[in-house]
Design a protein that fits this description.
The structure is a homodimer. The longest helix of chain A has 13 residues. Chain A has a 5-stranded parallel β-sheet, sandwiched between helices. Chain A has a 5-stranded mixed β-sheet with strand order 7-8-11-9-10, with helices on both faces. Chain A has a 3-stranded mixed β-sheet with strand order 6-13-12. By secondary structure, the first copy, chain A, is α/β, with parallel strands linked by helices. Helices cover about 30% and strands about 25% of the residues of chain A. Chain A contains 7 helices and 13 strands. The first copy, chain A, folds into 2 domains: about 110 residues, Cobalt-precorrin-4 Transmethylase, domain 1, CATH 3.40.1010; about 120 residues, 2-Layer Sandwich (Methyltransferase, Cobalt-precorrin-4 Transmethylase, Domain 2), CATH 3.30.950. In chain A, helix 3 crosses helix 4. In chain A, strand 7, helix 6 and strand 8 form a beta-alpha-beta unit. At the A-B interface, helix 1, helix 4, helix 5, strand 6 and strand 7 of A face helix 1, helix 4, helix 5, strand 6 and strand 7 of B. Chains A, B: It is an enzyme of class 2 (transferase). Chains A, B: This is Cobalt-precorrin-3B C(17)-methyltransferase (Cobalt-precorrin-3 methyltransferase) (Cobalt-precorrin-3 methylase). Chains A, B: Pathway: Cofactor biosynthesis; adenosylcobalamin biosynthesis.
Chain lengths: ~240, ~240
């Protein structure tokens, strides 16, 4: 059996009871080493299989091999396992192999809503998630989605906004957004949400300092009603108050 | 002090430790009666203020009045408090009144990712949330967003997809989607996610029976790579496996 567990953004308190229980009930814990470290305090004497970034396929294959031996395996994702996480890969691999292993997907608090809670309430209206990583998605499709989401005045949450090797994707995205959204549209950045060194910045499309954004950041671009009030980013739901 | 608490989709196990702690630490619990009932077992002897649907403004104003007296108040939202929930309204009301009350927003597992976990892994690629309720949003903006999201081949999660008085919004949305997405695009429906009578249906844009969808449902429309395998809905992340 495989439990694919979304552990939430990082802080153990932001894990669900169900996620904790699934980890407690598993014999082997498989995950990216950074995420394993986040939950170390609750792993006690479990067998741990961890590896580095970009090794997702090997990691999931290994989890499946272990589960085939009859052990209960927990595959760890940060945030929600089904949002750019490990749930899809596990199910895809099982489907290719036509294996009939039991899989439980345990949802968690995803990075965008964790970041939003720190910023205020930026996600109170229709929004979208776009990953700016072009490792698995062609850049032209990413750009097309950025343009269409901007045209529709969606609030936009960027996952994987910037890293070494992708230093200019966010800047390029903002250029496209500015074709449709005003340059003073409110932008929220949260770094290391619910982890040590958590940091939030509220700025605008025009004033952003891109160098403040890194791989651990979520960037949320507001819609045309989003406003800044003190240190909060608020998107109105539309109530007449 | 006000804790705006996302309790997750319904099952107490899908609440975070932080949400439980915030409720435990609050003296008065304010919420829509259906959500209060979901968490009744953990409210023990708390003072409870609950009311019905469409009374969100009254409810939040009442929470603020109680908090002004110095009591610690928890305002309950299902799912994540910041996703079409109570977080925005509380912050907006405080901003209008220029009140300096401390507010903690406690995120939770939102309905879309809870539904996704039951369906398989439909949200593994870029997706958006669109509410089909036109109580607070003009129908032409909703329709514009549906068209643009379809053009961008986003996975689309519909909140508030269908209710009395809005019986044909989903059908109208699907007509628009079919201008851009193939009629055999996979569609997942989850009713009462993580509650009694939970039910899931995997169908297509063309084959859907709209009458199966109600107010408690989340409807997820796949992208052009989403497929059905047995009773699962899978959106590939893009790995070469």
């Amino acid at each position: 059996m495989i439990n694919v567990v979304g552990i939430g953004p990082g802080d153990l308190k932001m894990m669900t009871f169900q996620a904790k229980e699934a980890i407690d009930n598993s014999q082997v814990i498989v995950g990216y080493k950074t995420y394993i470290n986040l939950i170390k305090p609750i792993l006690s004497d479990k067998e741990i299989v961890s590896n580095g970034m970009k090794q997702e396929i090997e990691r999931c294959k290994e989890a499946i091999e272990i589960a085939k031996t009859g052990k209960i395996v927990a595959v760890i994702s940060s945030g929600d396992a089904g949002v750019y996480g490990m749930a899809g890969l596990i199910l895809e691999l099982l489907e290719v192999e036509k294996l009939d292993l039991k899989v439980n997907i345990i949802p968690g608090v995803t990075a965008s809503t964790a970041a939003a809670a720190l910023l205020g309430s930026p996600l109170m209206h229709d929004y979208c998630h776009i990953s700016l990583s072009d490792l698995l998605t062609p850049m032209d499709l990413i750009e097309k989605r950025v343009e269409l989401a901007s045209q529709g005045d969606f609030v936009i949450c960027f996952y994987n906004p910037r890293s070494k090797g992708r230093e200019h994707h966010l800047e390029r995205a903002f250029e496209l957004i500015k074709k449709y959204k005003s340059a003073d549209t409110v932008v929220g950045i949260v770094k290391n949400a619910a982890r040590e060194d958590e940091e939030k910045i509220i700025t605008t499309l025009e004033a952003i300092d891109y160098t403040l954004v890194d791989m651990t950041s979520i960037v949320i671009v507001g819609n045309n009603s989003t406003y800044k009030a003190d240190d909060l980013m608020i998107t109105p739901r539309g109530y007449k108050i």
